[in-house]
Specification:
Membrane topology: Multi-pass membrane protein
Helix content: 55-70%
EC number: 2.4.1.258
Number of strands: 2
Distance between the termini: 36 Å
Number of helices: 19
Strand content: under 5%
Subcellular location: Endoplasmic reticulum membrane
Largest sheet: 2 strands, antiparallel
Shape: globular
Strand order of the largest sheet: 1-2
Radius of gyration: 21 Å
Oligomer: single chain
Enzyme class: transferase
GO molecular function: dol-P-Man:Man(5)GlcNAc(2)-PP-Dol alpha-1,3-mannosyltransferase activity
Structural class: mainly alpha
Length: 358
């Protein structure tokens, strides 16, 4: 074997990933420390988060009256609870350096979960260095302290649990992520498909109800005060995003971007892509008709493998990022790299996974 073939083998053989992950994590610890030490914190939403949770901690429970310098509170209850804890341990939000350390720990923990998920899906070693090269993700976690960081942690923890066929834990963690940021609702189709395949329609329905009840339970203090304001703020499906926050669609112009027809067109394209993925990538490789596939899935006779449970949510996440009116950070951590697991060179993860189920 020549040097070139050996290098290719090292880069593409999943078994070698066990050596590269600890080295990358160690490097990330030092890099995070360097970023926090040397690069100035960027104020965007942190002060607003702190102003909002200070009102909550003062006894305010009406979402219509909880506001900050950049606007009203527009995130669900779990966001409020988590940032209330940060408010208390970070000297009412003034100790930003300590908050950055907390988010650095959260970033490393999220990265550990993502790498674990990738290894479970037998990702090739060449993908792992790509996980730590994102300037934007370091900024989101360490310099801006966005709630996207918390939502991302819950999303990947849910994916890992679904890979390990811990259906209840996976659904609960996903629901907690929704409680941080509503955009994770867009992952619901993938979560539903995975749980139905693995547990059957009856248990999946029960878990869906559990996820809904968890949202209600967490929001009880706000629902008791003013249920309509909570629902309209935390789950505002008609929210109009500002043109200045878009990245993908800046070329269309502000008038087009803010039009309802453009928003509906993006939603239609997103739904169409999900339908194509469902037919050709989620069930297509099983060589079963749609009716046969559904019949087996209803009885939980197609338990998804670990190589299926990660790429399925990632395909939805990639589509929502690409077609979203604004740039979504939550869950963006390595969704595109994840797609290489199933669509990259010498790989067909979803097809292999479903074939194995048969």
């Amino acid at each position: 074997m020549n040097i070139y073939e050996r290098a290719i083998g090292l880069a593409t053989t999943p078994e070698y990933s066990r050596w590269i992950c600890p080295l990358l994590l160690l490097a990330e610890v030092f890099l995070c420390a360097l970023i926090v030490w040397k690069i100035p914190y960027t104020e965007i939403d942190w002060s607003t988060y702190m102003q909002q949770v200070s009102l909550f901690l003062s006894g305010e429970r009406d979402y219509a009256l909880i506001k900050g310098s950049t606007g009203p509170l527009v995130y669900p209850a779990v966001h409020v609870y988590i940032y209330s804890v940060l408010y208390r341990i970070c000297d009412e939000g003034r100790d930003i350096a300590f908050a950055q350390v907390v988010f650095a720990i959260l970033y490393i923990a999220t990265l550990v979960i993502v790498m674990w998920s990738y290894r479970s899906a037998r990702a090739p070693p060449y993908l792992f260095p790509l996980l730590v090269l994102s300037k934007r993700l370091h900024s989101v976690f360490l310099l801006r302290l966005f709630n996207d960081a918390v939502a991302t942690f819950f999303l990947w923890a849910a994916i890992l649990m679904l890979q390990r066929r811990q259906w209840t834990a996976g659904v609960v963690l996903w629901s907690m992520g929704v409680g941080v940021k509503m955009t994770l609702l867009l992952i619901a189709p993938a979560v539903a498909v995975i749980v139905v395949l693995g547990a059957g329609i009856i248990k999946a329905t029960g878990l869906g109800i559990t996820a809904l009840l968890l949202q209600v339970l967490l929001a009880v203090p706000f629902l008791q005060e003013n249920p309509s304001s909570y629902m309209l703020r935390a789950f505002e499906f008609t929210r109009q995003f500002l043109f200045k926050w878009t990245v993908n669609w800046r070329f269309v112009g502000e008038d087009t971007f803010t039009s309802q027809s453009f928003a509906l067109a993006l939603l239609a394209v997103h739904a169409s892509i999900l339908a194509l993925f469902f037919v050709y990538r989620w069930i297509g490789p099983s060589n079963a008709s749609f009716t046969q596939f559904i019949r087996k899935a209803v009885h939980g006779k197609l338990p998804p493998t670990q190589g299926y449970s990660a790429p399925a949510p990632c395909t939805i996440n990639f589509s929502r990022i690409f077609h979203g009116q604004r740039l979504f950070f939550s869950g963006s951590l390595d969704s595109t790299r994840c797609l290489f697991i199933c669509f990259g060179p010498r790989r067909n993860g979803l097809g292999t996974s479903i074939q194995a189920q048969r």
